[in-house]
């Protein structure tokens, strides 16, 4: 199966190198995406540009792909299900939740000179980054790519309720399946509350399992596929 891999903020397709290698050995065809403005083209890219790139990858896939979105890119994966509900076999969300219609994509941190730079490790202290040693943190920060402001502040538009019929797997890294279910039950994740087929998978890692647990993450993705 084709497995489209969309990394979260500040990352390009190379974040998936170890996961992709493991997936190939398990018989799948991983397609790591480098998004406009995050490793591909100028920093003037918009959210619409990134959505278009994801949809182009869905359209180019062999058969129905599984679309994987990490962190903020959970929303990009969900937008693919909304735009192509008959073409996406399954959506996998890793450590992130899709935002609802009419909300900003990822306006989590201040913009500077038209981009949202990586804010450093303080906002990610605790479970998010506990499994990243100093060497891993240095490698991460050396590779980060500021997110275009028009991506971070772009408004999400969801239009097709058939997205709720696309099966969803939520991979829970720095939080547990029980916590995720509680957030959904409380109404904090309205989109997932309406999904017909929702599965939870636990992985004992921080927020970036593609860096710290790539082989295990690949096995989980292969099983989901």
TrEMBL record:
SUPFAM superfamilies according to UniProt: alpha/beta-Hydrolases
GO molecular function: catalytic activity
TM segment ranges: none
AB hydrolase-1 domain sequence ranges: 3-219
Superkingdom of the organism of origin: Bacteria
Coiled coil location: none
Protein name stated in the entry: Pimeloyl-ACP methyl ester carboxylesterase
High-level lineage: Bacteria, Bacillati, Actinomycetota, Actinomycetes, Pseudonocardiales
């Amino acid at each position: 199966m084709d497995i489209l891999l969309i990394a979260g903020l500040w990352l390009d397709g190379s974040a998936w190198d170890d996961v992709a290698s493991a997936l190939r050995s398990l018989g799948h065809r991983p397609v790591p995406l480098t998004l406009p403005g995050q490793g591909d083209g100028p920093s003037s890219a918009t959210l619409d540009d990134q959505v278009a790139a994801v949809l182009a990858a869905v359209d180019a896939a062999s058969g129905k792909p599984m679309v994987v979105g990490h962190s903020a890119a959970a929303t990009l994966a969900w937008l693919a299900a909304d735009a192509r509900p008959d073409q996406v076999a399954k959506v996998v969300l890793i450590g992130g939740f899709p935002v609802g219609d009419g909300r900003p994509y990822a306006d989590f941190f201040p913009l500077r000179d038209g981009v949202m730079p990586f804010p450093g490790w303080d906002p990610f202290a605790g479970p998010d980054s506990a499994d990243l040693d100093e060497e891993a943190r240095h490698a991460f920060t050396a590779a980060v790519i500021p997110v275009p402001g028009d991506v971070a502040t772009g408004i999400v538009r969801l239009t097709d309720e058939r997205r709720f019929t696309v099966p969803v797997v939520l991979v829970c890294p720095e939080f547990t399946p029980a916590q995720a279910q509680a957030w959904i039950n409380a109404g904090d994740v309205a989109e997932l509350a309406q999904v017909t087929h929702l599965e939870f998978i636990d992985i004992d890692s921080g927020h970036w399992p593609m860096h710290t647990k790539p082989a295990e993450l690949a096995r989980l993705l292969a099983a989901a596929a």
